[in-house]
């Protein structure tokens, strides 16, 4: 987690500590917060904080909402932030083709949602590479009636799998994304992750 601390108080700050509330993915600090002290008035410090997913879990709304408390010698400060879902995609999220097909058929039709992603000016291979760089893996690619079809999988740190089918028509900047999962609470956040990755 990257943070910048600004001291707008009239005195130096020190004794920093951080705490996260329970959250959907058990996100927690993996080390103490290290802010250079003293942080003098009208100065700032950039800080990187290692995180893990071994904290207490409680479903949040929105799903990736993170509530944070930072204390120092002056006061306790509270804020919340929405963590991009692709941060929680694991490196072992590439599903075997046969398992993908069986799982897609096994998940009921009511657990499928469809989204349109607009204004994408990338080739099918560029789309696949960008997503793979964020641990969303292309299992198979085929061409059906002039449209490229990408079949993809991702696995979240809490063990939830999401399967995706993406329809890409050459020369058209709108893609169709279909998502299937046994835990449909994640669908909207997965869609937002696709949007963020492909528009970045």
From TrEMBL:
Q: Which InterPro entries match?
A: AP_beta, B-adaptin_app_sub_C, Clathrin_a/b/g-adaptin_app_Ig, Clathrin_app_Ig-like_sf, Clathrin_b-adaptin_app_Ig-like, Coatomer/calthrin_app_sub_C, TBP_dom_sf
- Pfam families the UniProt entry points to: Alpha_adaptinC2 (PF02883), B2-adapt-app_C (PF09066)
**What residues does the Beta-adaptin appendage C-terminal subdomain domain cover?**
89-199
GO terms under biological process? intracellular protein transport; vesicle-mediated transport
Name the UniProt key words of this record, in alphabetical order: Membrane, Protein transport, Transport
Mind telling me which SMART domains this protein's record contains?
B2-adapt-app_C
Q: Which Gene3D superfamilies match?
A: 2.60.40.1150, TATA-Binding Protein
Per the record, its GO cellular-component terms are:
clathrin adaptor complex; endomembrane system
Q: Does the keyword Transmembrane apply?
A: no
Q: Which protein, by its recorded name, is this?
A: AP-1 complex subunit beta-1
Organism equals Stegodyphus mimosarum
């Amino acid at each position: 987690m990257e943070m910048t601390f600004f001291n707008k108080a009239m005195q130096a700050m020190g004794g920093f500590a951080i705490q996260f509330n329970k959250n959907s993915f058990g996100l927690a600090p993996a080390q103490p917060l290290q802010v250079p002290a003293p942080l003098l008035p009208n100065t700032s410090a950039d800080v990187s904080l290692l995180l893990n997913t071994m904290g207490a879990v409680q479903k949040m709304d929105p799903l990736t909402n993170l509530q944070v408390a930072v204390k120092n010698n002056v006061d306790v400060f509270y804020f919340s932030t929405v963590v991009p879902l692709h941060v929680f995609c694991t490196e072992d999220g590439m599903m075997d083709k046969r398992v993908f097909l069986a799982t897609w058929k096994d998940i009921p039709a009511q657990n499928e949602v469809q989204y349109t992603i607009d204004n994408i000016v990338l080739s099918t291979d560029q789309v696949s590479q960008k997503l793979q760089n964020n641990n969303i893996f292309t299992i198979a690619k085929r061409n059906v009636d002039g449209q490229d079809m990408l079949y993809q999988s991702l696995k979240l740190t809490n063990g939830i799998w999401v399967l995706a089918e993406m329809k890409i028509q050459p020369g058209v900047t709108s893609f169709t994304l279909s998502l299937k999962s046994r835990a449909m609470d994640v669908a909207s956040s997965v869609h937002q992750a696709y949007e963020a990755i492909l528009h970045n």
